[in-house]
Amino acid sequence: MIQIKLNGDDYENDVYPLVKAFYPEEEVKVIRQNTDNAIIKESVTITVDTVDSSLCVRADTEERQLYKEEARVKEAEAERDILVRKKIIRNHLKRMVYRCLNSLTGKELPWGTLTGIRPTKILLEKLEAGEAKEDIYRYMTEEYYCSEKKAELSLTVAGRENELLKDMDYQNGYSIYIGIPFCPSTCLYCSFTSFSIEKYGKLVEGYLDALMKEIQYASTVLKNKKLTSLYIGGGTPTTLSEGQLNRLLSCIDDYLNPSAAMEYTVEAGRPDSITEEKLKLLKAHGVGRISINPQTMRQRTLDLIGRRHTVRQIEEAFALARKTGHDNINMDIIIGLPGERKEDVEYTLEEIRKLNPESLTVHTLALKRASRLNVKKEEYETADFAEASKMAWLTADFAQKEGYRPYYLYRQKNMAGNLENTGYARMGKEGLYNILIMEEKQTIVALGAGAQSKFVFHDQNRIERVENVKSLKDYLERVDEMIERKKSFLAENEHLL
Question: How far is it, in rounded angstroms, from Cα 279 to Cα 418?
Fold first, then answer.
């Protein structure tokens, strides 16, 4: 067990994930030593004990050390000074803890002290402010101890995002997310809001009734903004029957005018949910981008993770998509799946090369708290730090050779190898919605069970969230409340958006 002793609560969310990144297999416990002494809270005394090995690192950040770094912000306005000072303290503290743990373990983290899910957000803001790339690169390596390779990757991604965002007036637009929380089965690693169609299929019609009420409401909001993108995710939207899918898409046509959007995406992720008729329906209703997600092309792994479809079905679904005119197809894979090694990822990439999709999203396995894989992780062998890193560089090399460029990137907690998820695409085939939501550049009105609307106030540099309930039963019974939540929020804030 790893123990973290904190004076105060202010920096727990900064220190805990950093320690966890160094000790991913260990239980990490936070012991708070709350105090009213302001000086102690500011100085943040931390003790990290590796109990099992009887080793101890003690790191004391004295008040004078921190305030010495703050000299450069003395001219800042009082309100901003507080935020800047906290950021300086936070980064100073994380660098100090990083150095201690690096010395203790001999391990270097590819993303250094960065533990948030949006590392490219920092770079994009600096690019938009006109800062030079070499200065941004230096900032990433010196301020956050980011490795040279990750600094290069994030700068490449941020540069591509910057190019794409320049072509759209995203501040005067908004996007819509529609969630379909049904799947053929629940994958071993999944923690999303999703329900087995076998068990909950009788609730689909009622769910669509409720969802369509939200869709109708969504058509009445943000009249001063233009719809940029529409994304139907899940779950697996194509789990719906052909009639149900047509009903949903027709409702969207009637109320949301998707033809006016720059992008219309539907996840057709599970090959065992795809039929030729469904693909024709998507095309007929103007869907321009779809995903067909194998995760792996090894049948033994598909069986292990509960995908309940064959490799052959992946190939057949892709061929049907091409036959029905889909020319912007994404494929997802996951590196670090149980039992897989570098050679398995290499095999998967070779099979995907034959299919030749327009984009490839590479996820690194994350042990999500609610997933069956995390609950029973002792039963499965997953890739270690070194193996996961080899897999990641293998996919990056494949993408470069095949003409895919990285265009968005994000991270999650408890990822294999302390790595990241990267979206690669050929020029002109990037998923705009992915950039907008990951970089928090645009208001997203989210509809359906478990959906979370995100309202971006550009002038005030703040983001507010309005959540829907996750429970399917609660959503069906309380959809009017979900609408009222958004309605009340917008009544107070829409003029600021």
Answer: 37
pLDDT of amino acid 56: 44
Q: Measured on CA atoms in the order 298, 300, 305, 311, is the torsion positive or negative?
A: positive
Question: What one-letter code names the amino acid at 243?
Answer: G
Burial call 333-353: b when 16+ CB within 10 Å, e when fewer:
bbbbbbebebebbeebbeebe
* Average pLDDT score over residue span 345-358: 97
Two tokens at 317? Answer: 């679904």
Looking at residue 13, its pLDDT comes to 85
Q: Whole-angstrom Cα distance, residue 342 to residue 333?
A: 13
**Position with higher pLDDT, 138 vs 192:** 138
C-alpha 324 chain-centroid distance = 30
Residue 49 has pLDDT above 50, yes or no: no
What are 141-167's pLDDT values in tens digits?
A: 999 999 999 999 999 999 999 999 988
DSSP string, 171-212: GGEEEEEEEE-EESS--TT--SS-EEHHHHGGGHHHHHHHHH
Question: From CA 483, how far away is CA 478, in angstroms rounded?
Answer: 9
Nearest alpha-carbon partner for 218 in 446, 433, 440, 434: 446
Q: Cα–Cα distances in Å, from 82 out to 36, 42, 94?
A: 19, 12, 18
CB 124 within 8 A of CB 439: yes
pLDDT digits (tens, 9 = 90+) for 92-119: 889 988 998 898 889 999 999 998 889 9
- Give the max Cα distance, the chain: 69
Q: Say how many C-beta atoms besides its own lie within 10 A of residue 458's C-beta.
A: 15
DSSP percent split of the chain into helix, strand, coil, nearest 5: 50, 20, 30
Any residues with CB less than 8 A from the CB of 491 and at least 6 apart, and which? none
DSSP SS3 for 245: helix
